[in-house]
Amino acid sequence: MIDAIKNGCPYLKKRAVRERKVPMKKRMLAAILSGIMVITGISACSGNAATSSENSSASTTTAATTTATTTTKAETTAATTTTKAETTTVTTTTTTTTTTKKPETVATTTTITKKPETTTAKPATTTTKKNEPAPAATKGDSVKFSQNLMPGWNLGNQLEANSGGTPSETAWGNPVITEKLIKQVKAQGFKSIRIPVSYLSKIGAGPNYTIDSKWLDRVQEVVDMCIDNGLYAIINVHGDGYYSIKGGWLLCAEPASEQKTIKAKYKKVWEQIAKRFKNYDEHLVFESMNEEFDGTYNTPNREYYDNINAYNRIFVDTVRKAGGKNNSRYLLVPGWNTDINYTAGDYGFKIPNDSTGRLMISVHYYDPWKFCGGEEAPGIFRWGDSIKGQAIRNSGEKHTDAKFDQLYDAFISKGYGVIIGEYGAIDKTYKDSRSTAYRAYFAEYVNYAAHKRNIVTVYWDNGYNGDNGFGIFDRKKCIVTQPEIIKGIINGAKATKAPKAVTE
Fold first, then answer.
1. How many C-beta neighbours within 10 Å does residue 208 have?
2. Is 444 labeled as catalytic in the residue annotation?
3. What is the pLDDT of residues 201-210, one digit of tens each?
4. Over the stretch 152-196, which tens digit does the pLDDT of each residue have?
5. CATH classification of 3-492, choosing from 3.30.530.20, 2.40.160.20, 3.90.550.10, 3.20.20.80?
6. Catalytic one among 75, 221, 422, 444?
7. Which residues are CB-neighbours of 117 under 8 A, at least 6 positions away?
């Protein structure tokens, strides 16, 4: 594996820009789906909806192929829109769609009318006039704010999942998202949920590039589940920037003749998202995109990096002009493939200008990849500098400290909050009975090292429990499946001294 892979990429090395292959996280699904997807008809956790029983894959997916090797069909319905009145008293009606054995079969649950006092997390009123400049934040405010999100959890392989380029929350094997699941995540001590979202074919033709309103309704419903339960939420434009996904369009390596159209479309997309959520307060964070790069794992191409910088600038400017509370919203911007070295090092990343001072930096950490993923190669199953016989050296605690110091020096020390939006290690108990113990220790140390430097972590969970899975919750039953790992995350996120290493 080359360094770029080890420094946070969840995919296999591509041979050339035009040889686009499905990310490793989706290829991992190919081996899993054929066995897992026969497990249909398992009832979902009791909550707002029934579920479909399918497998998973995603931004750090366990597996997939370009053909997606999935038999699920795209969802044709979405939950109804929750109307937000601009008054201090709000009555919210939540209706959640559900799928049974066949994803296209949809049912609705009993409507629940919430009491006004339960809506404090998502105020319906706004005292901010449209386009009125927000008071500038002082240096370090974004660092202070980011601590509210620590630790976080990813609702992966759901709203970014797609079938043939059509987004569908059950396309990669996970059930319909329920509030019961969100409550379980909150109960374990997580403070925020990152909600990856793909739009792809849900975006109409230019020049307006109108997003399917039902899809935005569903995104809003899931955001509301999080905020109504006292959690912070992060939403992004996730799979639209992949060369390996059908319908991907936010492509930094496309020629200059196509970049004008790409940028116009990107602006329209974020304009619609920002206006939909303009009255939401700081509990909602926007992230511009996910793992944006040219699909190869070489040193960043400066021309392509300039396009990524331009996307981030369009994102910030568009959100700030969208009215409501967007002019003071905290925003996340990534560098090349969310790679720590290519973002914090001298490779071309430029932080967009923002007079509000409310920007944060997004990176991912799957290092070393042969431990965190690496099922496709002679992987390693234990982690730490003290482990003997490892295939990869200098990739344990000291390496983690060095990478996080790099983030601190480049951004935290300058007043920018840093969010490690994805990290984790897959289950390899089928090869090493102590895999879980080392996964838990890795998670604890990562959180300890991040907390020590005021960096925020968001664990990658793709919903898949089993061989090569990242899952720590069963989304069908809404129960914890990896208590050791969760304990490591929660303890590490508040620890003042390094955790005790696992001994061989």
1. 12
2. no
3. 999 999 999 9
4. 999 999 999 999 999 999 999 999 999 999 999 999 999 999 999
5. 3.20.20.80
6. 422
7. none
Alpha-carbon span 427 to 356, nearest angstrom: 42
Place of tokens 């930096």: 361
Q: 97-99 and 106-108: which strand pairing?
A: antiparallel
Instruction: Judge whether 27 and 65 are in contact, CB under 8 Å.
Output: yes
For residues 174 and 159, give the distance between their C-alpha atoms in angstroms, rounded to a whole number.
Answer: 10
Does residue 375 have an active-site annotation?
no
Residues 35 and 15: their CA atoms lie apart, in Å, by 30
- Is the peptide bond preceding residue 151 cis, with omega within 30 degrees of 0? yes
* Marked catalytic residue, from 291, 375, 397, 444: 291
CA distance 251 to 266: 11
Give the pLDDT confidence score for residue 340 in this predicted structure. 98
Cα–chain center distance at 74: 21
Query: What does 358-398 look like in DSSP terms, one character per residue?
Result: -EEEEEEE--SHHHHS-TTSS-----STT-TT-SS-S-SHH
Which of 119, 101, 98, 117 is CA-nearest to residue 109? 98
Rounded Cα gap, residues 291 and 241, in angstroms: 8
Among 37, 224, 241, 11, CA closest to 124: 224
The answer to pTM > 0.85 is: no
Question: What are 247-271's pLDDT values in tens digits?
Answer: 999 999 999 999 999 999 999 999 9
Write a three-state SS string for 205-269.
Answer: CCCCCCECHHHHHHHHHHHHHHHHCCCEEEEECCHHHCCCCCCCCCCCCCCHHHHHHHHHHHHHH
Q: What is the pLDDT of residue 27?
A: 38
* Per-domain residue ranges of the chain: 3-492
Tell whether the torsion through CA atoms of 211, 214, 215 and 221 is positive or negative.
positive
Concatenated DSSP letters of 155-200: --SSTT-EETTEE-TTTTSPPPP-HHHHHHHHHTT--EEEE----G
> What sign results for the dihedral spanned by CA atoms 9, 60, 484, 380?
negative
Cα 112 to chain centroid distance, Å, stands at 29
Collapsing DSSP to helix, strand or coil, 275 comes out as helix
pLDDT given for residue 343 in this prediction:
98
